[in-house]
Design brief:
With about 190 residues, the chain is mainly alpha-helical. The protein contains 6 helices and 2 strands; from the N terminus they run αβαβαααα. It has a two-stranded parallel sheet with strand order 1-2. β1, α2 and β2 form a beta-alpha-beta unit.
């Protein structure tokens, strides 16, 4: 199955981007049943006629529409896409028969944040002074990537604090999470609006 990133579809040469899109769908039809997944699709299929729009983007949108509507049926092929900016996607792609089912992922609630903290620290040795429920209450508005980054930074803070010491065991403590929160230097409320 085709493995590649959307930047590989963007080409300055006329016709190359469209050929790349056709090739992705051709290979998907051959490998059916399969899934074509476009991550950060807003960068590939921006609204036509928008400021900063270029002819390559317009041609890619047109070719993608042709492939999805298809003279050749997409039997056994599911096309999925993800974006943080649905407002930038060309409206034609959101019509029935294309990307007509839009699933918006909400910001994790308190319970989900506690679970994510547990998941992202599962391989860490944690001190007893860490209260994930208290921490989850403080990070309202964090999404999964923010929580993963917080845990990674806490782990790095623990490593930095042990450099040059004789400690044989690395333990992540509450102070390391406090350090990680300070390093993020992001407003805690409303992070998902970025």
């Amino acid at each position: 199955l085709y493995r590649g990133a959307w930047p590989q579809l963007l080409s300055m040469w006329i016709g190359e981007s469209e050929r790349g899109v056709r090739e992705v769908f051709r290979k998907a039809r051959q490998a059916a049943p399969c899934i074509i997944f476009f991550d950060e699709i807003d960068a590939l299929v921006a609204q036509r006629g928008a400021p900063g729009d270029n002819q390559a983007t317009e041609r890619i949108v047109s070719q993608l529409l042709v492939e999805m509507d298809g003279l050749v049926e997409l039997k056994g092929v599911v096309v999925l896409a993800a974006t943080n900016r649905p407002d930038r996607i060309d409206a034609a792609l959101l019509r029935p028969g294309r990307f007509d089912l839009v699933v918006e992922m909400p910001v994790p609630d308190f319970t989900a944040r506690v679970q994510m903290l547990n998941i992202h620290t599962a391989r860490m040795r944690l001190a007893d002074n860490i209260d994930f429920e208290e921490l989850a209450g403080r990070i309202n508005g964090f999404v999964g990537a923010d929580i993963e980054g917080l845990c990674r930074r806490a782990g790095l803070a623990a490593v930095r604090s042990r450099l040059g010491s004789n400690a044989t065991e690395l333990v992540v403590e509450r102070v390391h999470f406090e350090t990680a929160l300070e390093e993020l230097a992001l407003p805690i409320e409303g992070l998902a609006k970025r």
